[in-house]
Amino acid sequence: MATILLTGATGYIASHTWLELLAAGYDVVGLDDFSNSSPEVLNRLARLSGRAPVFERANVCDAAAVDAVFARHRVDAVVHFAALKSVGESTQQPLRYYANNVGGLLTLCTAMRAHGVNRIVFSSSATVYGKPETLPIREDAATGATNPYGETKLVGEKILRDVCAAEAGWQAGILRYFNPVGAHESGRLGEDPRGVPNNLMPYVAQVAVGRRARLSVFGDDYDTPDGTGVRDYIHVVDLALGHVAALRRLLATPGSLLVNLGTGRGYSVLELIAAYEKASARAVPYDIVARRPGDIDSCYADPALAHAELGWQATRGLDAMCADSWRWQSLNPHGFDAA
Ligand SMILES: NC(=O)c1ccc[n+]([C@@H]2O[C@H](COP(=O)([O-])OP(=O)(O)OC[C@H]3O[C@@H](n4cnc5c(N)ncnc54)[C@H](O)[C@@H]3O)[C@@H](O)[C@H]2O)c1
Question: 12 an active-site residue?
Answer without folding.
Answer: no
